[in-house]
Amino acid sequence: DDGQEALDKASKQYFDVIVSDVQMPVMDGPEFFSRLAERHPRIHSRFLFFTATPTAALKTFFRDRDLMFLIKPAPINKLQEAVTEILNRRR
In the chain, what is the straight-line distance between the N-terminal and C-terminal CA atoms, in Å? Predict the structure, then answer.
């Protein structure tokens, strides 16, 4: 429901892929990622951001951290392809 809840769950349980919105209540996606990355430095390889507002600053954030992202709205097959790519990199 919100970035803090996502951080709590991802801190307690392993997820092969984490798909996160950028704009969330309580804690936004970039802060969620940054706080989780402090605990798990290689988490970037399992992250996929989904955003409707790909600002230049946000694109720089993604690029500098080697994060994948999709722009909303995206067809479901693009989301599936991105998740599959992340899963294949993990093997």
Answer: 30
- Whether 51 and 69 have beta carbons less than 8 Å apart is answered as yes
* Ramachandran region, residue 79 (left: φ > 0; alpha: ψ -120 to 50; beta: rest): alpha
pLDDT digit string, tens, across residues 1-51: 899 999 999 989 999 999 999 999 999 999 999 999 999 888 899 999 999
Beta bridge pairs of residue 21: 50
Using a 10 angstrom Cβ sphere, with 0-12 exposed, 13-18 middle and 19 or more buried, the burial of residue 30 is buried
Whole-model pTM?
0.88
